[in-house]
Amino acid sequence: MKKIDTSYKICIFICLLLTLAGCSKESDNLADEQSEEMNMSEEVTQTEELPTEEIAEPIITEVDWSDYFDGINGAAVIYDLTENCYQIYNQELACTRRSPCSTFKIISSLIALEKGIIVPDDSIRTWSGEIFWNEEWNKDIDFSDAFHASCVWYFREVIDEIGRDVMQEDLDRLQYGNCDISDWDGRLNSNNSNPVLTGFWIESSLLISPKEQVEVMERIFGENTDYSEDALNELKQVMLLQGESEADISIYGKTGMGMAQGIVVDSWFTGFADTADKRIYFCVYLGETENGNVSSAKAREIAIKIVTDY
Question: What predicted TM-score, i.e. pTM, was given to this entire model?
Fold first, then answer.
């Protein structure tokens, strides 16, 4: 009986030893896992704490370009990406939001080209037969001619085909002024009630400043653009000023002009210029004056002089 008790005790002792060994192994494994997790946490923390390259804020320089404006109420902005520098004439007006008018054809053309709504080789739209004040609009017209003639009815159709959702998405992505397309049909326009000749971009809900115009140009045509090379090349082709560019500089842009109750209140020319060694983005804006001596043609003339002399 004593032998049996002794054997029994030995068995119990061995079981206890095995149990303790197992617990010790599990404890070691748990410790190893905890140590590994701590090391991974430290690695993540170290990765997160790695210094990132800071993007320098652009330099803003106020300049006196009053001689170019010859007494006209206006503003001008040039952004030199190479120097990371803005040169601004009349900073208060340059930061004031106004209706983009036909400069918005840059945006509507870009989106339509990107989405396949405009296919340059097959872009003719049929004239309704309605007689408009601009003779160049009174015919079937293709994309290039419509852009150069600033044909409103053509781009009204294009914008309606783009649609509100896509338009809003792209304006938000481009941070285009106030991004407000709420007056889609342009009912706020006090100068024109013809639905084929107005919209949110013509003296209506959408507003943008000259400085913001320049920033949008850089977002479209800069290195970090979200748009395809094909769409950009087609857009650049219609924006290139034929006969205005010199051998060492190519100027791309679009005019815009808006009226309220028969008076010109906004005149624009915005775009970019390529020189031998850099690209600069620009915008010239002319506001309402007492003598009414403003026009988009005048804004373009001033912009070309400033850019050429830059």
Answer: 0.82
